[in-house]
Amino acid sequence: MGTTTSGRAAPLAPEDRREALTRVFIALAREHGRVPTTSEIARAAGVAEGTIFRVFPSKDALQSAAVESAFCPAPARRDFLAIDRSQPMRERLVDFATTLQQRVRDVLDLMRALGLSQPPPLERHSACLGAGKHLRSEPAESCEPLHHDHFEDVLDLVDPDDVTVTPHQLLHRIRLLSFSGSHPGISHGELLTPEEVVDTVLYGVASGRARKANDPHHA
């Protein structure tokens, strides 16, 4: 954010200041693994501590806004749509898995920092502050949690003639493996790379010889 010659942040509209402070809160929480103090937030944002309470009634209100912003999936959806469709299918899907895994890691890091046992419920009317100004005019459902019913806009990542399941089913399997392969507790520390996730779903792990030996239709 811009600063004045005094080192303080340049004046912002209240809505923009709220967004800037939520971003600082999230960054500090992830960096330090705990809830930041208001003095830490103010120092990192380049504002006086009292500025926080001119746009938020309390620190709890700032934390609630930051959590709502951090867990909003709209930025991930934007990244899905930005994937280069001219790439081969495997590379498109690796980009898809990379975005999914980054979101899982970001969410888990913030949950640990804030002491949350599960993601908070997102309201359909969420403002999605962390998604950027250009998303404020999007439909309210853009802030609903990611699940396989929300992949209609990215089904073109899959070449349907090259797989034996529907594009919907393929993306759903990549989503499931991306989550479990990115969660330290589920994976017992043996995390999967996006390439491993995609190759496991697309090609499996059996060798060509094993596939032939176990294929009852192989002549």
Automatic annotation (TrEMBL):
Domain HTH tetR-type: 15-74
Pfam family, one: TetR_N
Entry annotated with the keyword Transmembrane helix: no
Taxonomy, superkingdom: Bacteria
Keyword annotations: DNA-binding, Transcription, Transcription regulation
Gene3D superfamilies in the cross-refs: Tetracycline Repressor, domain 2 (1.10.357.10)
PROSITE patterns with a match to the protein in the record: HTH_TETR_2 (PS50977)
DNA-binding region: 37-56
Cited InterPro entries: Homeodomain-like_sf, HTH-type_TetR-like_transc_reg, HTH_TetR
UniProt protein name: TetR/AcrR family transcriptional regulator
